[in-house]
Design a protein that fits this description.
With 197 residues, the protein is an alpha/beta fold. The chain has two domains: 1-100, Rossmann fold; 105-197, Rossmann fold (3-Layer(aba) Sandwich). The chain has seven helices and seven strands; from the N terminus they run βαβαβαβαβαββαα. α1 runs parallel beside α6 (162-185). The longest helix is centred in the last third of the chain and has 24 residues, at 162-185. It is globular and about 45 Å long. The two termini are 26 Å apart. Bound molecules: glycinamide ribonucleotide.
Amino acid sequence: MLRLVVLISGGGSNLRALLEACEDATFPARVVAVGADREADGFVHAEEFGIPTFAVALESFASREEWGDELLAQIRLWQPDLVVLSGFMRLLPPRVVAALSPYLINTHPAFLPEFPGAHAVRDALAAGVAETGASVIVVDEGVDTGPIIAQRRVPVLPGDTEESLHERIKIVERELLVQTVLDIATGHVDLKELATA
Ligand code: GAR
């Protein structure tokens, strides 16, 4: 059984998809804790499913490194096999990435390497592309530059707003994320191999 710690910053709809998947006794993973860089709205999903939460706010620390060290300590308490960044909107300090790598994955609302960064949906709309997408990647020290595990295209429709497009992307993201966790748990995806390829 793959033990997951999921990190969020916002509403946590991708987290909820994972929590729902883990309800199935045959799904080979369990969310053991949910962390955030704030008292995230998405904690309500964890609470509904009886999963413990922890918040480590950047503002409470003198430096990013000290914040990262405390976040890492909190994560490690749960002895996860895999850490999932699911709408976690802070860059992890390099030593946190190094400590968790390659068992650290991230969902992103674009077809990477297109539109990395915090405003992927807005950037895709501004670029006027006909399609964007969703990706799940292994986290490395760059911004959305790690090896791609899974991705799928999503069309941009006439009249799309950032919100409407993001909602459609998130439907795809949730499927990719659940499938990716399943593939890692069953050995169909080997993160070590991907990270060293
Ligand atoms: C998701 O689209 C996720 O890919 C994105 O935030 C959203 C979180 O939604 N993350 C990033 O943009 C990271 N660069 P959720 O809170 O409803 O799961």
